[in-house]
Amino acid sequence: MAHAPFFSIIVPVYNQQQGISKTLQSLVGQTFNNLEIIIINDGSTDDSLAICEAFASTDPRIRIVNKPNEGLPFARKSGLETAKGEYIHNLDGGDYVEHDAYECLSKAIIEGGNPDILVFRFKYVTTSGKDLPSKPYPATIRTTEDMMRHILTTMQYNSVWQYVYRRDLSDNIAFCKDLTLKEDLYYTIQLLNAADSLSIINDVLYCYVVDDASMANSKFTLRSLESLEKADALVEEFLRKNNMEQSFDYEILAMRLQSYALAVLGGLTWLIKDKKPEFDKAFKKYPCLKKTGEIRRIYKLLKAQEVGLLSPIIAYYKMKGKIRQ
Predict the structure, then answer these.
(1) How far does the signal peptide extend, from start to end residue (predicted)?
(2) What is the CB neighbour count within 10 angstroms for residue 273?
(3) Does 174 lie in the same domain as 41?
(4) Is residue 170, in this structure, part of any structural domain at all?
(5) Which of 265, 196, 189, 278 shows the shortest CA–CA distance to 231?
(6) What is the DSSP letter of 216?
(7) Of the residues 196, 214, 232, which one is the last residue of a structural domain?
(8) Considering the domain boundaries, does residue 325 fall inside one?
(9) DSSP 290-301
(10) Residues 173 and 246 in one domain
(11) Which domain holds residue 223?
């Protein structure tokens, strides 16, 4: 390409031979052409690389970076080191975008006065053929700080692929390859803090593919919990270094409790008793946390524990699929 591309699309790929063709087809078929597609082959051992090479042989906008497997955060890091575009978008291998996604984004950037970061809606697409669009963004979110507070409190909108951002915002992003869950949270909070302007697009542009069988069979483990706690600690340390710890006290507590709620609903029900003192302390300090996100379900379980009904309530939740077996 003679000129720098407007968008750099970073696509990490690891053993995704089943879905990567649809991902790449959605990119090469875009109505907006001024983009580069950077595929990070993160040590795939299946036919993913061959599929990517076939696409690259017919489209000069595609570049492939081969590297040893180090996980999603470092795959994205490699993509950033390669990117030349003015704006960055991270598209996870296996997912795809609407055919006019980058045309919509380019128009929004021009009409919005070149904002630092843009966020857009998405839809869940299941392998059984169902799709569910995400809800419009709350009108209360107007600034990057508003978005940071909302993310930490609710764990909504924390996925990196929901954002397009100026490339220079990533100059000081720190990565941690030990994270297997919540890795996007650490990345997104750093991005939002570095940005001065935010543009919200209520169009559905991204398709997040959910494997029904994988979701049903996935198990929440102690390693999963450790990743959640590690990500929370990294975010808290980041806020502390930027002198934001006190002003984000409520959000930090909510973030921790949301992680424990996710772990409990994922099957680690022993955490209800183990973390009860932490929940009680947080509820005393901020009573409204009882009604926040998934924390409200844990509050109900804690009340059930007080009257000796925890075990039957957990059994009922498992039967209904609200807690994984």
Answers:
(1) none
(2) 12
(3) yes
(4) yes
(5) 189
(6) H
(7) 214
(8) no
(9) GGSTTHHHHHHH
(10) no
(11) 219-319
Complete DSSP assignment for 251-284: HHHHHHHHHHHHHHHTT-TTHHHHTHHHHHHHHH
Radius of gyration of the chain (CA): 21
CATH of the domain at 106: 3.90.550.10
**Segment holding 37, helix H or strand E:** strand 35-42
Check whether residue 194 and residue 229 sit in a common domain.
no
> If DSSP codes are grouped into helix, strand and coil, which group holds residue 125?
strand
- Residue 186 maps to a domain: yes
Which tens digit of pLDDT belongs to each residue from 39-83? 999 999 999 999 999 999 999 999 999 999 999 999 999 999 999
Contact indicator for 220, 324 with CB cutoff of 8 Å = yes
Asked if residue 1 is part of any domain, the answer here is no
Single-letter code of the amino acid located at 90: N
Count of beta carbons in the 10 Å neighbourhood of residue 153? 22
CA pair distance 65, 83, nearest whole angstrom: 11
Q: What is the pLDDT of residues 237-273, one digit of tens each?
A: 999 999 999 999 999 999 999 999 888 888 888 888 8
Can you name the residues that pair with 119 across neighbouring β-strands? Answer: 163, 200
CA distance 14 to 324: 26
Helices (H), the chain: 20-28, 48-56, 72-82, 101-111, 144-154, 183-194, 212-217, 222-241, 249-265, 271-274, 276-285, 295-306, 310-319
Query: Within this chain, do residues 190 and 243 fall inside the same structural domain, yes or no?
Result: no
Instruction: For residue 37, list its beta bridge partners.
Output: 9, 62
- Structure-token pair, residue 39: 């595929």
What's the CA gap between 325 and 239, in Å, rounded? 36
Domain match, 186 and 276 both: no
